[in-house]
Amino acid sequence: EAQVTQNPRYLITVTGKKLTVTCSQNMNHEYMSWYRQDPGLGLRQIYYSMNVEVTDKGDVPEGYKVSRKEKRNFPLILESPSPNQTSLYFCASKLHGALNTEAFFGQGTRLTVV
Amino acid sequence: SQELEQSPQSLIVQEGKNLTINCTSSKTLYGLYWYKQKYGEGLIFLMMLQKGGEEKSHEKITAKLDEKKQQSSLHITASQPSHAGIYLCGADGYSGGSNYKLTFGKGTLLTVNP
């Protein structure tokens, strides 16, 4: 089954403790992206990757890192999480980054930083 | 960057009623996507529209893209409680070089009362 898998689904952590949210897709998609979703602000893009070893900042990249060492995986790294990073995070993938290709989304990771 | 404005922000309807959600872009839309999200869950792809004047239907949901390709509407006929959720429009936007970025409106929260 074609899917985007995020782990973990839920995470509570403390300020400053490094964490990684994993994202994996099995569709051989070139394009992958991370979003955060907050009430009243909608979905905002954090980082995206057009292909292996090609990443770029989205609209809200501060406090996050990503890597794309292989096509299927696109982990999101929070080196020193802070409470303002408490949010619902989504990973998405598309066949390629050009126009008119459907994006597939993971089930989301609800992160709470205390 | 491309901005998508959705209206209304929220909508409460009685089961069986028709409703329309709008999505307006600040720039010409080259691809417009509609997604549905159940609270706290991942996004489910509904439809993609590419051409001016295009209209697509799936079950009781119809989406249209206007001729000028700057506005899309999502119409639900004879709404049911299963239609409840957050509806998001998304669009591909050019972000420089050969990069495109998928951005979203803030969403419309639909409640359908039995």
Explain what this protein looks like in three dimensions:
The complex is a heterodimer of chains A (114) and B (114). Chain A is mostly beta strands and 114 residues long. Chain A is built from no helices and 11 strands. Chain A has strands at residues 4-7, 10-13, 19-25, 31-38, 42-51, 54-57, 65-66, 76-78, 87-94, 104-105, 109-113. In chain A, strands 2, 4, 5, 6, 9, 10 and 11 form a 7-stranded mixed β-sheet that branches. In chain A, strands 1-3-8-7 form a 4-stranded antiparallel β-sheet, with no helix packed on it. Chain A is globular, with a radius of gyration of 13 Å. By secondary structure, chain B is mainly beta. Chain B is 0% helix and 60% strand. In chain B, the strands form 2 sheets. In chain B, strands 2, 4, 5, 9, 10 and 11 form a 6-stranded mixed β-sheet that branches. Chain B is globular and about 50 Å long. The mean pLDDT of chain B is 90. The chains are: A mainly beta (114), B mainly beta (114).
Helicity of chain A, as a percent range: under 10%
Query: What's the overall geometry of chain A?
Result: globular
The rounded distance between the terminal residues' Cα atoms of chain B is: 40 Å
Described by the principal axes of the CA atoms, the overall outline of chain B is globular
Main beta-sheet strand count, sense and barrel state of chain A: 7 strands, mixed
What percentage of the residues of chain A does DSSP assign to strands (E)?
over 45%
- Please provide the ordered H/E string of secondary-structure elements of chain A: EEEEEEEEEEE
Mean pLDDT of chain B: 90
Fraction of residues of chain B in helices?
under 10%
What multimeric state do the chains show?
heterodimer
Poorly predicted spans of chain B:
none
